[in-house]
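The freezer alarm interrupted the setup, so I double-checked each line after restarting. Inputs confirmed:
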Amino acid sequence: MPDFQFQSLAEFFAMGGHALYVWSSYGVFALMIVFNIVQPILANRKIFQQLKARLAREENMAATAAVTIAAVTIKGGE
Amino acid sequence: MLQWFYMLGSPKLFYTMTGRYMSWLVWLTVIFLGSGLVWGLAFTPPDYQMGENYRIAYIHVPMAILAMGCYALMASFSAGYLIWKIKIADMIAKACAPIGASITAVALATGSLWGIPTWGTWWIWDARLTSTLIMLFLYVGIIALRSAFDSVDSGAKACAVLSLVGVVNLPIIKYSVEWWNTLHQGASSLSLSDTAANPPEVWIPAFFVGFGILGFFLIALILRTRNEILLRERRSQWVLEMVSSTVIDETRHA
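Predicted 3D structure, all chains:
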């Protein structure tokens, strides 16, 4: 089992004086990961909402059309 | 055989299969990436010349390799689209571009951060760095080119051609450190010996990180490709059935 290479947590965060470079590298990397996962998930949610709204709109239009046709038919039959 | 080929190219099948195995992929990625990063950051001995700064290499190296791998993948799918007109090949190629661009940017940024204390400069116009920067411009150019077309098919063809032209850059990046006298070091050799410059205790965690990053790449690629499938197949029966049977709530994607 490999050993922890630093004397303390403070030394770990200090990275032997290279803290700025090491942690900003890992920070940039973490941001890139989060961006590439979160962005498509948000986009997916939006697509579902838009498709759902379109479906509802089309169903609504179909229902209106059916009612109109029925009304016209009834009127014609009088 | 041909039928299998067609099935693989079916957007619907791609959508259902990737949905089925996504959670496995996420778990594997979290395990490999998490353990590899902790191992590399805290449990490997410091470098005798670079000290703790070399720990940046645990992300810089896989990012640089993946940036090129992603380009090669994008170009392969572009060729597949041009030759066989497989729609899903173009969707995957399209998904590759933004991921590849961000990965290349991270490879350059981490290289710069590593270079400040090690080389004394964050940038130099050496062959490896310059050719990698060109790859970033290629990715950005491909994204911009696609958005310049109103027609999906014309944009796809133009992007596929540009992607294939850009492949010439890949061997230049790979062999730049051998062809020219660059400040960037060559590839490190992996040795099983404990006394080597690069002993197993240093490169084994790098492979954990590497597999984790590969997993992340596949997840990001699949997520984007699935969105592209939904958008392009939005008129088809299976998408409409899926949408009407899905209840939209905030926990669905958790």
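Quick read of the result. The mean pLDDT of chain B is 89.
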